[in-house]
Design goal:
The structure is a homotrimer of 499-residue chains.
Chain A (H helix, E strand, L loop, with lengths): L1 H13 L3 H8 L11 H13 L1 H8 L8 H5 L24 H5 L9 E4 L2 E4 L4 H4 L4 H8 L6 H6 L2 H11 L2 E4 L2 E4 L4 H6 L1 H5 L4 E10 L2 E9 L29 H5 L1 H4 L10 H7 L1 H9 L10 E2 L9 H5 L3 E2 L5 E3 L11 E2 L7 E2 L33 H15 L5 H35 L11 H23 L11 H21 L1
Parallel strand pairs in A: 7-8
Antiparallel strand pairs in A: 1-2, 3-4, 5-6, 8-9, 10-11
């Protein structure tokens, strides 16, 4: 590596000092920020080979401030949560070399690259060097276990395999084949994450000639529950996309909308048609998206997803309203995404550990009975509800907020009852042998039933939670819930009439 | 109240003069604007308890201009339509106290709040103090009657109750229960409005301790046909959201898109894929959204919803093209939202007064015959069409516009014929006893039929009116209209074959 | 015409010099740009009669630069591709008269208008005066033949007529009528284009009195495959909307989203939920949308549709990455919009020339066999893939890009297999007489089959190509592909059981 550095310094002196370019092009936040010698070398090549990400990084906060300078800020303004960032990172910009060489022994994807030992993937465990509070919060959340919760829950696993697997037809019969890793990676696992492993090294042809790189399997991916080659869980880039790692992007609903979309999780669509969304889309371009802390009414006029679910908020007078959290369920008391009913939030991010009374890894039984010992209790629900309501009350009076939450509870109750009605028809079909419960996801009639809770009941709950009327009404709302119930009934009755 | 004021002046002198804060923070439109003593008191507390709305208001035009100053503007630039705003409102900003204390004797929700008698809800009748022309226009429109048109029309009422009501299942049979006020409030009535009544007083726990407030039923709500505790109809906030009351927001399509969405009223989606929408989304951030009057080509490049349906428009040379109207149907000659056919606009905003030849409160009979005496005549249709075309012709030549309108007429005709074809199948089913017309909305086959006119025929008409090709074609357009007709036929024929 | 000019000069001197207005209002790109005398006359009237388009043009580049000045720019910065623009166009702004009077003898729509001989429609052949390279590229693309590819392919023609035609019902039988030109013009042909012909002259009433104009049929329209009254194919305005002809608009995805929308071509929706879309929607308002060439990382942070499919891209160091092309398929190796399977791109824009082994004008047979002689070969596919990958590699490393493309190939393979499974069920139905293949688009069961490939398989492929997970999963993805296969099977089996 020393050799490479010497060679590079020669190159630098020959061409141009990268740091001075920086100083010219970018208005530094504090003062010109030194880049490590190693990062200067990275940039020297990658400015030619992947200029897009270099430019992106040059505009990022990481390029414009050192950890030392970041730690000088008042506590409430800090974006860094480790008081003791190790040398030699403290006094240089957070550059290529600084991030891509953390914890090399843990990284199966570490390899020698033009004289440097580099990790291909920067994992949350690497980001933890400067951001330990955020990573620790995230690492116990449902997001961190998004992949394992799919794979280790036999029912969810079967669901994924049934939907994503190839189907072959002979005559009028369908044969189910297993789902490919490739297709799962761009569908379910695109959001939930893949397990990235290293299958030795391989040679690839690049513009600079053949180079030897680790052969990563199930890569590329930036799902929230990704399992990384260092064994860590999760990914920071779905919300803070590389290489700008922008807080502005993370705070905008377009980020959440990568995954939280209809028909199963219509959070973005409901937000869009809400009064909050109306105002965000109309005037959000005038707000301040970067400040930490984020000032209610000054920096932004209405909440985005981040406001209610994870940001540190203060009033214009400087009073802290809620703390920042990177466990995005921390302020949630109920889980409205029902599989198959709504229910109190699970106590643990690892939902595959849940057992309901029928032995299935589901938070409720098919008849609606909750697996209570795995779910947060009434006290914790009240605590979280109170926390969330604090945010509402910066613009809405207490009575307004109370009534809003009461309405929401009624909706949970009613949609659960509608799901129960559908499930009774399904039970009848299973009991009478008109459908086969051994795989509850592989028949037409079962899909009618699933659609009820997976799409329509969920939509109405999201519409209630965030005030999007169309998703409670005609767009996947009560209209569809009712129509589809009639259709499910028709299917069951047609089976009945053939008896 | 005097006592409270004295106490408050002490507080003000102790802490900070709100008016001077204002002067510092905001560039006033004319000069520093005095706040009434009462509004200063409101702000003093609410800056702590609901800072978001205080900040929102501080940025609003209401905080930056007095009615007196507003009335000094040239007539075409005025946003205020009452020459004789009463004292003491004339010479202070339009603040909390000014709006929340209008017409107290009419307000069932008026209550004593820290020494002030306050209305919880500011109704259109209160806004009328300064904006009488706008409120009067609105109050006779279909929007003002949006709730009553649902509730007083037996057929619409039955439609709402059938769709929104809980359904219980025993065996394979469905029992229909009535819909809850709660669910209707967040679905149909979220757009149409609720009837807000006051059920005595109640104590609520707030940050400042227990306080006594009116117990409002069916609140919160900001539907366009809301019936307020002062008996007035409607709400200004769906389009001019509190507490900025922004004209910019009202002029952007995101506002209309809170309610005018697919699958029933795909106005926003059609606009989005139209050439107008293409240009708005690409360059709208560069336009002038605030000026009154709104100058074609200077302030904006293509129309938004507001441009064609309600704004006061002038040419760059200063010629008035169309007047402002807050009766949003005033420039419309035909109603393309067919229940069940398209038809001339109703003469009266109270559509529940209509009787068709079969005695139903529908603008057309199920066979298509219009209830002509309740609908505007040919002359009035021509007058409105001419008015609307004036707007088109600021960018399109006469022949272009004429052809456009002719195409639209053809589409109305063809979609009505397609609805008739579907209705003939439904009539057959009702006549033969394969379905029961006593409630035309509660059977699977009826939902197939409803989908034809409620979603697909409507979509094609909206797509034609505003040039969104996908909604005329594959997305809820002719493709679905045809597919669904085949499915309806299949259902009817399968009943037939069982005879 | 001379007489008209004299009269107009009088008017000009009487009122105001348009050129000086221009100089005041607009910051010219170089220096005040002279307008031709004729264009000044146009503007003098049209400022009153169609002020919107005049303002639009005044803000356009066409109003601010002469061809001579445009040709002085360094080659890479040029937006004009003809070194020898003819006099007298060279030294005046590109105004009304300059564009609307090109090639008059070819224009059936040329007519005498207040002393000038004007073409109503400016065609690509007219734009070719200054932009020949772009027009030539476009004119051999699939876009230029978008209309003829629908009309001259008997199968596509039958598809359009079946879907768009009126259906009458007698008893429970459906009679199919031919589709009207009017409805096709606002559905299929709104994107594909109409054939605009001139049916003599007619008198229309305008604000200036009765005037005589050509009677254009199938107008207005701005579909990409429009056939113009001068015999040329295509239209530049769908992407560069008149009269700003903005490159900014063309580069934004809202432009492509006029036509490339779900359910058949969900390019825009997939982009919106991709990481690229996430970043574009969050920070695109800060980018530079106008520069030519377009600098990766400097002007924009992530690609839009234009970036990958047609723009001239350079690195910050000035190296050209890819050339501009207005044949939007030029960098595409595979056609993912399967009718009915994905397949290599056709060699020729005129896809109606293709014959598959069954004699149908389809790139694959119903059993999946490609009509290879009409499609590009392996070498050409590799060449194009390499070209496209060059763009990816400005931000992604070689291995990342390689793996991405491999995943995409797997998806094409799997979705084609799923389509084959559905088609086998359909073949069974046709063979057994449960459906009639003579028109494969006019029965309920056939629509189930079509939905598989036309919507769901396509969605998954688009989702794979541009990383939009929801469109591979629940939103028209594998969930729907599987559910619909079960429904198709159910239909076929119910026919079987009736035997």
């Amino acid at each position: 590596m020393k050799q490479a550095l010497t060679y590079t310094f020669f190159l630098i002196s020959l061409f141009l000092p990268v740091t001075s370019i920086l100083a010219e092009e970018e208005q530094p936040i504090t003062k010109p920020v030194p880049l490590s010698e190693e990062t200067q070398v990275c940039i020297l090549c990658h400015r030619n080979y992947t200029p897009g990400i270099v430019e992106d990084w040059l505009n990022s906060r990481h390029a414009k401030i050192t950890p030392d300078a970041a730690l000088e800020k008042p506590e409430l303004e800090r974006r860094i949560s480790n008081d003791s960032v190790p040398e030699p990172l403290r006094s240089v910009a957070v550059g290529c070399y600084e991030c891509h060489t953390r914890n090399p022994s843990a990284h199966e994807d570490n390899f020698e690259h033009f004289g440097f030992n580099i990790n291909v993937i920067v994992s949350p465990n690497d980001c933890k060097t400067c951001h330990p509070v955020e990573v620790n919060e995230y690492s116990v959340s449902k997001k961190a276990y998004a992949l394992e919760n799919l794979q280790k829950n036999p029912l969810y696993h079967s669901f994924v395999e049934t939907i994503m697997g190839l189907k072959e037809v002979k005559g009028t019969e369908i044969t189910h084949l297993p789902a490919s890793e490739s297709s799962k990676a761009e569908a379910c696992y695109a959001c939930h994450g893949t397990r990235i492993t290293v299958d030795g090294m391989k040679t690839i042809s690049t513009e600079t000639g053949d180079i030897l790189v680790p052969n990563l399997l199930n890569w590329p991916n930036h799902g929230v529950g990704r399992i990384n080659p260092d064994g860590s869980r999760g990914s920071c880039t779905p919300c803070h996309p590389r290489h700008s790692f922008s807080i502005e992007v993370a705070r905008k609903p377009y980020t959440c909308s990568q995954c939280h979309l209809e028909p199963d999780v219509p959070a973005f669509e409901v937000y869009r048609e809400s009064k909050h969304g109306n105002i965000f889309f109309s005037s959000g371009h005038e707000w301040n998206w970067d400040p930490v802390p984020w000032i209610i009414g000054k920096d932004f006029k209405v909440p985005t997803c981040a406001t209610c679910h994870n940001s540190l908020l203060v009033t214009p007078a400087g009073k802290t309203v809620v703390q920042r959290t990177h466990d995005f369920g921390a302020r949630l008391w109920v889980r409205i995404f029902g599989f198959v009913y709504s229910h109190p939030q699970p106590k643990d991010g690892r939902t595959y550990l849940i057992k309901n009374k029928d032995g299935l890894a589901l938070p409720t039984a098919f008849d609606g009975e909750p697996a209570s010992e795995y779910l947060i209790d009434e006290n914790e629900q009240v605590r979280r509800k109170t926390e969330m309501k604090k945010i509402c009350k910066n613009c809405h009076n207490t009575d307004w907020a109370d009534k809003y939450y009461t309405k929401f509870e009624t909706t949970l109750n009613e949609t659960d009852k509608m799901v129960l009605s559908s499930t009774k028809l399904m039970f009848k079909a299973w009991k009478e042998g008109w459908a086969d419960i051994s795989n509850p996801f592989d028949e037409m009639i079962e899909h009618k039933w699933m659609t009820q809770w997976f799409f329509y009941a969920n939509s109405i709950r999201f519409a209630s939670a965030m005030s999007g009327p169309d998703y409670a009404t005609f767009k996947n709302g009560w209209w569809e819930l009712t129509t589809n119930l009639y259709e499910l009934q028709d299917l069951v009755q047609s089976k009945e009439s053939k008896e």
